Amino acid sequence: MKETIIRRITEVPLEDPILIEGLPGVGHVGKLVAEHLVEELKAEKIIEVYSPHFPPQVIVQDDGTVKLVTNEVYAYKGDGRDLLLLVGDYQSATNEGHYELTGIFLDLAEEFGVSRIYTLGGYGTGQFLDKPRVMGATNSLELVEEMKEYGVVFQENEPGGGIIGVSGLMVGLSRLRNIDAICLMGMTSGYLVDPKSAQAVLKVLCKALDIKIDMQALEDRAKEMEKIVGKLREMEKSQMGYESASDDDLRYIR
Amino acid sequence: MKETIIRRITEVPLEDPILIEGLPGVGHVGKLVAEHLVEELKAEKIIEVYSPHFPPQVIVQDDGTVKLVTNEVYAYKGDGRDLLLLVGDYQSATNEGHYELTGIFLDLAEEFGVSRIYTLGGYGTGQFLDKPRVMGATNSLELVEEMKEYGVVFQENEPGGGIIGVSGLMVGLSRLRNIDAICLMGMTSGYLVDPKSAQAVLKVLCKALDIKIDMQALEDRAKEMEKIVGKLREMEKSQMGYESASDDDLRYIR
Amino acid sequence: MKETIIRRITEVPLEDPILIEGLPGVGHVGKLVAEHLVEELKAEKIIEVYSPHFPPQVIVQDDGTVKLVTNEVYAYKGDGRDLLLLVGDYQSATNEGHYELTGIFLDLAEEFGVSRIYTLGGYGTGQFLDKPRVMGATNSLELVEEMKEYGVVFQENEPGGGIIGVSGLMVGLSRLRNIDAICLMGMTSGYLVDPKSAQAVLKVLCKALDIKIDMQALEDRAKEMEKIVGKLREMEKSQMGYESASDDDLRYIR
Amino acid sequence: MKETIIRRITEVPLEDPILIEGLPGVGHVGKLVAEHLVEELKAEKIIEVYSPHFPPQVIVQDDGTVKLVTNEVYAYKGDGRDLLLLVGDYQSATNEGHYELTGIFLDLAEEFGVSRIYTLGGYGTGQFLDKPRVMGATNSLELVEEMKEYGVVFQENEPGGGIIGVSGLMVGLSRLRNIDAICLMGMTSGYLVDPKSAQAVLKVLCKALDIKIDMQALEDRAKEMEKIVGKLREMEKSQMGYESASDDDLRYIR
Fold it and tell me: In angstroms, rounded to a whole number, what is the distance separating the alpha carbons of residues A73 and A177?
């Protein structure tokens, strides 16, 4: 196995599908949204991608069996809009792997006639936010205008460090193939898995796709997470003295 | 030498052999078991694998000659069950090498008509255990049930970090080739070479293969190691004060 | 995308052009000079180079759109001397990538009939200099003599650590293709972007090319930078005590 | 330049030559010996090897010109024994590069009909030695016996960490091509360039090759180095107190 392997599982005829990418990243925001969509829409797994660029390990599952590290494509044949959903356990462990895998994902996008891509991620701010906003970065000026209507925020030169990994490269490289693409980034502390930020991203995505998705599962996870964050804040207050504690800055948690 | 080289040394006709992998890893548990089998069964070396993914060095032997870093396959033609034994000095030094070499080993497995693979390793617990158990992770649910009969333990999502290296990848990737595979992991402190844990793994393996193996050599090494561990524990007690010393936690030894 | 991609944007017929490289490096001296030339000469972008050896990320621009990491070639068709200008966001993130990309740039140089190459960079001294000099290193003894006339300094075995990256490799590898090449290095502290050092390099380059370039933009940036450096020096003095403060050694600023 | 390049400079007809490798390594012992031989024998450069596995930089020379990082082969056509001498600025910067380059050097050895290889290096002991001995490791038992006659020391399993880099791999990989090879390692502190250790290795080599080489240049460098080592020892004594100072242990110098 010297090369990346694309394993086709089943065929689902799709019409003009939109591709949504949600691989692991900051606050696992993109992963939470994309996996939530897969579950709620009962999307069907159609492709598995194996690669020597992934970490050389297997994941042990609840039932005692193992699972190779993969990136997977799910298909959803809806009444209205058809979707392709890209999810996975890890991103590439090498620089070159990010470019190669993004190229493979865009080959698949072209094969399915995808004309628009949403990549989903988190934008780490170092602070716990009560109302996380959703930032955007696109590969076309028209998309900037369109996305502002759905409440997406565009800030000059933000994120300053650029967008690293598949979420960024897909938006950049899809331009060379004339596919419109936008990266939606939920603001998040960057310290913890963040289902609240995922909810914010999902709301924007639902508006943009004009679909309805039950959010109860994300809501429940967000509430659990709130409790953990609440405890962390309390610990912080008691450690630092009540007065001086900054309520929302938990930068020291990693 | 830009590519991995497979050097065939001799041919041994085998019938429906089982492949057993024991390369270096946690506590060298898998290596101890597989090399013990090679010696006790007087298995014959049939293949040497050289690779630019191995560390760029040679090993100096007792007689003043050097030995390239290799992974090697030994064949055992028994009365009952034929075996292929995979042993070696090192695993790959690169991520991609783990995938490539595992692919090469599975090509060989297919060539020999292997229908089942046992990969052997250690599972580091951070504690010295008097009766090390053997954990398992498989690529088929039927194997989980079968292995429980031999005393193999399956715990939900354990090992939590997955199984890294050839032992894990072989179990995962062999599924794509319809070969049953199980990883047997002897629990071990993770700090020292552990022949006692190797004995525990070997006992399970003998039951599963329905073969008998003299264990005296492992027994002797285990007793030597017991003495070393005993001394370490004493040192720990005298350092920490008799009362407070945790008897089995030697996490600080590396 | 497993390979470096050369994307041709437009064709500009050039006569015996000179190639000037100014990619990011110490003090961004080379980048400042080359980008200043692109702007002042209104040079036209003719080639974009994408590579899996670049960092796997995109840059977010002012208007909310993203830009892939590229190296770019601009063409200037002048009254006198035609120029090719090589600029970019990043150099290769891998060792091998430096060699590959330099090879690609020299292929392009040969294609355009380039007979001389100037590579531009900074030479970090650890000190703020009022009158930064320009050091040189060439691939022909004739060029050493010629460049001394323009005020370029050659010091035995300097820089002692050699010249790392594309600026060095282009000078070395172009010898194998019989192209004359020189690396011009503006002395700079190495701690900050240094437009003053860039001015010094540009002056030498203008003499060597016998062209005139307005330097106001660099002048303005240099003045801004002077203020920042001034403040840093003051901070240093107040921290260290006025007497003992070394006026030009700000090695601790990174 | 994605591949290693072999550049032939001139042809020298050699009869049954012996290959001597002396690339940079511990104490630069091998490099000192091989370069001394090139100079004393006035050997002629016949091959330059360039590789993307070398560090991506150029070396600036005394005259202001640059030099690519290379490994080079020199030929010596003697009255008696013909020699090929392999020297260079750096070894590979990557693991895989060590294997690839060693393969290339052995291809050249086969092309020239080499039947024996000497690889030269240092063996770091952590101590300054007045009479450094020369250790050996070979790829044939006959060579062990032969080399003992020239005073080469063989110690069980020494060096314990194996022999890293081209010096080790050449001895190991040449066995697969039926070429006899031995690595001669001069014992050295490992902290400083060591011409005295180089002299010891050269003496063994001269006996083995039955040639005479003037050693004055190495002698002179060794004397200079003695003075530096002497000063270091004095500094050590004054720091640690005269009585307690260990006379030959300067492990703290790097």
Answer: 20
Evaluated on CA atoms B106, B164, B117, A10, the torsion sign reads negative
The verdict on a CB contact (< 8 Å) between C2 and A103 is yes
Chains with 3 or more CB pairs closer than 8 angstroms to A?
B, C
For residue range D75-87, what is the model confidence (pLDDT) as tens digits? 999 888 899 999 9
Check if B136 contacts A (Cβ < 8 Å).
yes
CB contact under 8 A, C95 and D64: no
Distance from the D150 Cα atom to the nearest Cα atom in chain C, whole angstroms: 40
Report DSSP letters for B164-229, one per residue. ESHHHHHHHHHGGGT-EEEEEEEEE-SSS--HHHHHHHHHHHHHHHT-----HHHHHHHHHHHHHH
Q: In this predicted structure, what is the pLDDT of residue C241?
A: 55
What confidence category does residue C235 fall into, taking pLDDT thresholds of 50, 70 and 90? Answer: confident
The per-residue pLDDT for range D6-39, each reduced to its tens digit, is 999 999 999 999 999 999 999 999 999 999 999 9
pLDDT of residue A240: 64
Interface contact A64, partner B, CB < 8 A:
yes
User: Is D158 an 8 Å CB contact of chain B?
Assistant: yes
Assigned fold of C7-226: Rossmann fold (3.40.50)
| Closest-CA distance of chain D to residue B63, Å | 7
**Percent of chain A residues topping a pLDDT of 70:** 94
Which residues on chain B are in Cβ contact (under 8 Å) with D183? 66
ipTM over 0.90: no
Cβ-proximal residues to D223 (8 Å cutoff; 6+ apart), any chain: none
Span D105-124, average pLDDT: 97
Task: Provide, as residue numbers in chain C, all residues whose Cβ is less than 8 Å from the Cβ of D48.
Answer: none
Provide the 3-class DSSP secondary structure of residue B29.
helix
**Which pLDDT does position C27 carry in this prediction?**
94
Supply A128's token pair. 């716990």
User: Which residue is associated with the tokens 């028209």?
Assistant: A142
Closest-CA distance, C50 to chain A, in angstroms, reads 10
What are D199-253's pLDDT values in tens digits? 999 999 999 999 999 999 999 999 998 898 888 888 877 776 544 434 444 333 3
Q: Residue C157's pLDDT band (boundaries 50, 70, 90)? A: confident
Domain boundaries, chain A: 5-215
Whether residue D162 and residue B58 make contact (CB cut-off 8 A), yes or no, is yes
Query: How far is Cα D147 from Cα D135, in angstroms, rounded to an integer?
Result: 10
pTM: 0.88
Instruction: Specify whether the CB–CB gap between A84 and A117 falls below 8 A.
Output: no
Candidates 3.30.1330.30, 3.40.50.1100, 2.40.10.10, 3.40.50.10900; correct CATH number of B5-214? 3.40.50.10900
Distance of alpha carbon A252 from its chain centroid, rounded?
25
Average pLDDT along chain A: 91
Q: Tell me the average pLDDT across A187-202.
A: 94
Nearest C-alpha neighbor of C115 from the set C18, C244, C242: C18
Residues 6 or more apart whose CB falls under 8 angstroms from that of B162 comprise: A57, A58, A59, A60, A66, B168
Interface test with chain B among D94, D96, D138, D174, by most B beta carbons within 10 Å? D96
CA-angle at D204, arms to D198 and D208, nearest 5°? 140
Interface test with C, best of A3, A21, A99, A178 (most C CBs within 10 A): A99
Distance from CA of D140 to the nearest CA of B (A): 6
Nearest to A58 among B141, B154, B169 (CB): B169
Contact status, residue D144 vs residue B65, Cβ threshold 8 Å: yes
Taking the CA atoms of A162, A168, A169 and A173 in sequence, report the sign of the dihedral they define.
negative
Those residues of chain B that have pLDDT short of 70 are 240-254
What dotted CATH number matches A5-215?
3.40.50.10900
